[in-house]
Amino acid sequence: MTADQLCLLAAGLFFLTGLLTGLWKYLCIVRSPEAVAPVYVDIAHRSSLMYSFSALLLREFVPYSPLTPAGTLWAVAAPLLFFALAISTYVLHGLLRDTDNQLRAPHRLGQTTLPALAIHGFMWLLVVAEIGGFAVLLYGFLLSLR
Q1: Is the torsion defined by CA of 19, 93, 6, 3 positive or negative?
Q2: Mean of per-residue pLDDT scores for the chain
Q3: Which of 1, 86, 102, 128 is least surrounded, with the fewest CB atoms within 10 Å of its CB?
Q4: Nearest to residue 17, comparing CAs of 85, 76, 109?
């Protein structure tokens, strides 16, 4: 699979997830006396849609990558993986209805309390993967402007 194909596949899967979580959100709203969906159902819906377009944006920068095809694949795979993990986490919290803020201590996952190091460690890996992967592609584009 090429970096271009991976971006398009991720965009399609994220968009489909956005559509399905939109249906979930609607059903929650209809069934709620307050006409609202759980916080993380709403977040899962919106983030899935946003990440689908983010995957397309990454795809637009692939041709400018200064890396080999394998390196470019890794540069897009890293942010896409963390986009997928974020969406999965939001869906899980939406299903469990265990928190309205996953970053607030104590860090809940269902009936389990997660160590702060796990949450913040994950967040720093996410930062490095998402920013680092895109920065490489943006750097390649900036080189092409010369």
Answers
A1: positive
A2: 96
A3: 1
A4: 85
Backbone angles phi, psi at 108, to 5 degrees: -100, 140
Cβ-proximal residues to 27 (8 Å cutoff; 6+ apart), any chain: none
Region 73-78 average pLDDT: 98
Dihedral angle over CA of 58, 64, 67, 71, nearest 10 = 20
Polymer length in residues for the chain: 146
Amino acid at 63: P
Q: Does residue 63 have a cis bond before it (omega within 30 degrees)? A: no
Side chain identity at residue 83, one-letter code = F
Residue partners of 33: CB distance under 8 A and separation at least 6: none
Determine how many CB atoms are found less than 10 A away from the CB of residue 6: 19
Give bridge partners of residue 113 from the DSSP assignment: 108
Q: Is 45 exposed, middle or buried (0-12, 13-18, 19+ CB in 10 A)?
A: buried
* Residues 99-121, mean pLDDT to the nearest whole number: 91
